[in-house]
Amino acid sequence: MTKYVSYGDHANLGVAEPDDMFSPRHYAAVRGGGRQKRALPLWCYTSERFHEAEVEKIFLPSWNLLDREEIVPEIGDFHCMTFKGANLLVVRGKDNKVRVFANTCPHRGALVAQGEGNCKVFQCPYHFWSFGLDGHLIGAPQYTDDDRRDLIDASNREEFGLAEIASGCWGGFIFVRFREGTQTLEQHLGAFVETLASHRLEDMRVARKDVFEMEANWKCFAENYIDGYHIPFVHKDSLSRWKTTEYRRVEPHGRELLAFAVHEGSQLLLPADDYKGFPAMAQIDDDKKGGTYFTTLPPGSMMTMGNDGALVFQSEPISAGRSRLTVTSLFPKSCFERDDFDELAENYYRRNAMVVGEDKVISERQYAGLRSPFARDARLGTSENAVNGFANWIVDQVVGSDDQAQIAAE
Q: If residue 404 lies in a helix (H) or strand (E), which one and from where to where?
């Protein structure tokens, strides 16, 4: 007799959210090993409650890749942007340090700057409060109490500067953290610092930036990047043309992942005669020239690091069902001086359009499918081990560390 699937099968919740969503018992299968290991329950991708918990417990206290230092190359340069729903003001100060401020006047909240440019001071357009490049308050005209006494003086002036966001720079990248966390930026970067030192990312420049509005949860693309199972199928005419058989894993310090694919050339291109690129950078350590690094830096950053440049991905959550994917192509400054730069760079862009396009389509298609009431969790295979590792990290942050005693008690 034929057995049909049941709509709303309560033995497997699918995307239906349990009331006690954050109970460890719901994630026992994620913690499982061997033939029982699984990815996250499907509600972790569709639930706004789970999304809000991720923002609170993962993104706000973590270091997030914001942009490149080159958006403010000179002293006095500023750049306004929105990130994680916050209006930010990136500034290069007189001491040549890059700082990030909340782009909101501490008086009545107006934006103190718009767009980008260069200035010596910032002046709020509402009441003409002015601020230095380091965020300190310079002046607040006619700001007095009913007795005509100044409301701001030497005793409280420091309280009225622009609100500075914790930030730091590495490899030419700007990172921000919106809430106090447990790690310094260097601790967060872990093995990235020493492993990629000779690539000199700080000496690279942005050649192209593409932004995709994704109809998918942010984890769909992040998991896809570390999923080895899909490559022969989704990328059968692109990445699968690389017949790499040797991978070297770098010992991580934390949750960062770095794997070195050993081969000739660069996987920022495709292995074909019509994909000619830039030469390998001369300064790279000899043991790192013959291959490509594939790296992830939680929560949402990924980077493909060739011997000729880098391709950087940032998956930013917007809501449970929407995310923003930013893809940035970087090359050494010397490449931009070549007469054939545009011609050769186009080969990298062609490769990206094909590979990233395939990943975008499959990420959105996966998300559309997993929202079905008939969608169910499946076991993960060997080539999906990294997906299970990522799922465990998410559960650690949002639900709590693996507590088998608590699971058993429930």
A: helix 404-409
Residues in CB range of 253: below 8 A, 6 or more apart: 187, 190, 191
- The verdict on 200 and 336 lying in the same domain is yes
Range of the domain at 134: 64-170
d(CA 166, CA 71): 18
> Which tens digits make up the pLDDT trace of 350-380?
999 999 999 999 999 999 999 998 888 888 9
* Overall domain count for the chain: 2
Which helix or strand (DSSP H or E) is residue 81 part of?
A: strand 77-83
Co-location of 209 and 357 in the same domain: yes
| pTM given for the model | 0.92
Question: How many CB atoms neighbour CB 153 within 10 A?
Answer: 8
pLDDT-based confidence at 33, cuts 50/70/90?
Answer: confident
Pairing type for strands 291-297 and 98-102 reads unpaired
Contact 157, 172 (CB under 8 A): no
Amino acid at 306: G
| Residue 257: inside a domain | yes
Q: 137-139 and 130-131: which strand pairing?
A: antiparallel
